[in-house]
């Protein structure tokens, strides 16, 4: 992704294996000064469209380190599901890191599972409304605390945060 000044601000690599219908996604990066604006989700949505609509793949797969909760939440928000954890899979700067394998199948992209009327997966943009709801329920949170909590919940291997809305209000 290149901004208006011609500077590259994000990128992703797709290693397409057409025979297997597989796209291995890697090297996803958004420049630090451009994070938190939805660019990562937009990049992943474009990557998904490219993989399924243009390359004709059946499965997109990626591995993300378990400490990268913002990336995990982004991948989940665009449809990727957690398949498992590869413990101690990489030697990192401070010991070994665990990798989380996530995937999205073409049928799930075409027909995402429905949560029900007015119910959807939460995203980072919901932090303010979640903070308000948690505070109303007796668990005081500000927007930053709710954002951190949302990312932590969404990054759990089987964690999903659902939002129920009624007339635009989180219920």
Kindly, what is the distance between the CA atoms of the first and last residues, rounded to a whole number of angstroms?
36 Å
State the total count of DSSP E strands: 8
Which oligomerization state do the chains in this entry correspond to?
A: single chain
Physical arrangement of strands within the biggest beta sheet: 1-2-3-5-4
Helix content: 25-40%
The secondary-structure class comes to alpha+beta
Number of helices: 5
User: Rounded to an integer, what's the Rg over CA atoms?
Assistant: 17 Å
Coarse morphology: globular
Poorly predicted tracts of residues: none
Question: Quick check: average pLDDT?
Answer: 86
Q: What kind of sheet is the major sheet?
A: 5 strands, mixed
What's the helix-strand series?
EEHEHEEHEHHEE
Strand content: 25-35%
Helices, strands, pairings?
Layout: E1 10-17, E2 22-30, H1 39-54, E3 59-65, H2 69-77, E4 81-92, E5 95-105, H3 106-110, E6 119-121, H4 127-136, H5 143-155, E7 162-166, E8 169-170
Parallel strand pairs: 2-3
Antiparallel strand pairs: 1-2, 3-5, 4-5, 6-7, 7-8
Walkthrough of the structure:
By secondary structure, this protein is α+β, with helices and mostly antiparallel strands. It has helices spanning 39-54, 69-77, 106-110, 127-136, 143-155, and strands at residues 10-17, 22-30, 59-65, 81-92, 95-105, 119-121, 162-166, 169-170. The strands form 2 sheets. It has a 5-stranded mixed sheet with strand order 1-2-3-5-4. The protein has a 3-stranded antiparallel sheet with strand order 6-7-8. Strand 4 and strand 5 (95-105) form a beta hairpin. Helix 2 (69-77) packs across helix 5 (143-155) and helix 4 (127-136) packs across helix 5. The chain is globular and about 55 Å long.
